[in-house]
Design goal:
By secondary structure, the chain is an alpha+beta fold. The protein has one domain (3-149): Gcn5-related N-acetyltransferase (GNAT) (Aminopeptidase), CATH 3.40.630.30. The protein contains 4 helices and 6 strands, in the order ααβββαβαββ. It has a 6-stranded mixed β-sheet with strand order 1-2-3-4-6-5, sandwiched between helices.
């Protein structure tokens, strides 16, 4: 199984189709074809994934100059509430610092429960896009943009 396969497997298990947040294989492949985009995969203990291990979470990120954007983050439902999301964020911060970034960003739907985790890790809301997301049933949800120094 390739790293891309691991990422897609975690994404499929983790993202509720109602919110239409999951990316297609092609979208992920196209993003990863750019040198500025990278992924971090972790196992069930939150360690960087080694060959042969099962993936339990991932980060997909993109760098522009001295800023890194968290494009996607996910933890499989069976491993939620065990600190894997926080470990992934810390690996993300470490990777951003290693790439000489000074700030990191993310955008999420306003009703995303992960907002509490992001705020507890020092992210501050810097923007709002009204009615940015549309659910499968047509409901519109604002997008919130967050940033923090690394």
């Amino acid at each position: 199984m390739t790293d891309l396969d691991h990422l897609l497997e975690v994404m499929e298990a983790s993202f509720d189709p109602h919110y239409r947040e999951a990316w297609t294989r092609r979208q992920v492949e196209d993003s990863l074809s750019l040198s500025s985009t990278y992924m971090i995969l972790v196992d069930t203990a939150g360690a960087v994934l080694r060959e042969g291990d099962a993936a339990a979470g991932f980060v997909l990120a993109r760098q522009a100059a001295d800023e890194v954007e968290l494009l996607l983050i996910a933890v499989v439902p069976a491993r939620r509430g065990l600190g894997l999301g926080r470990k992934l964020l810390h690996l993300f911060f470490d990777s951003a610092r290693a790439r000489s970034a000074t700030r990191v960003f993310l955008e999420m739907r306003a009703n995303n429960p992960a907002g509490a985790l992001y705020r507890s890790e020092g992210f501050e809301q810097i923007g709002r896009r009204r009615d940015y997301y549309r659910t499968i049933t047509g409901e519109r949800i604002d997008a919130l943009t967050f940033a923090r120094a690394v």
